[in-house]
Amino acid sequence: MTRFAPLLLPDRGQPAHAIEWIAATDNEAWLRGQTGVARAQLAAQRFAGKPGSHAILTDGSDAWRVVAVPPAESGPWVLARLAETLPAGTYRVTGGGGDPLGWLLGQYRFDRYRKAEGEGPRVLLTGDVARLEETLRIASATAWVRDLVNTPAGDLGPAELEAEAEALGKRHGAAVTVRRGDELTQAYPMIHAVGRAAPRERAPRLIELRWGDPDAPRLAIVGKGVCFDTGGLDLKPSAAMRLMKKDMGGAAHALALAELIMAAAMPVRLHLLIPAVENAVSGDAFRPGDVLRSRAGLTVENTNTDAEGRLILGDALTRAGEENPELILDFATLTGAARVALGPDLPPLFSDDEALATDLLAAGTALGDPLWRLPLWDGYDEMLKSEVADMVNAPDGGFAGAVTAALFLRRFVPKGTAWAHLDVFAWRPASKPGRPKGGDAFGLRACYQVLKARYAG
Question: What residues form the membrane-spanning segments (predicted)?
Answer without folding.
Answer: none
